[in-house]
Here is the input.
Amino acid sequence: MHKEDKCNEDKAKLFRIIMKQCLPEMKDQLEAQSTELDKLEDDNDVIGLLNMIKELVYNAGGVRNKFVIMQSLNRTLYGRGNTQRHK
Here is the structure.
């Protein structure tokens, strides 16, 4: 088997495994975005699937979890990208 074929086969297996591990509620949310999900599945885009799941988890119902917001703000204020020194 060619290395590229083996890699595509492995990615397809991994995609199916991830989908099987999702709760029915998550599967419903993913399938509600069927056009994007179909493209990810056709491409065996495992990273794209994980990013889609991450977006759904952290932005559930269009409302970001308050702890996720706080962490993001802390990172912006105190973390990377901030060149000012704290006194």
Notes: The radius of gyration is 18 Å. The chain has a mean pLDDT of 83. The chain is about 75% helix and 0% strand. Helices lie at 3-21, 24-32, 34-43, 46-58, 66-78.
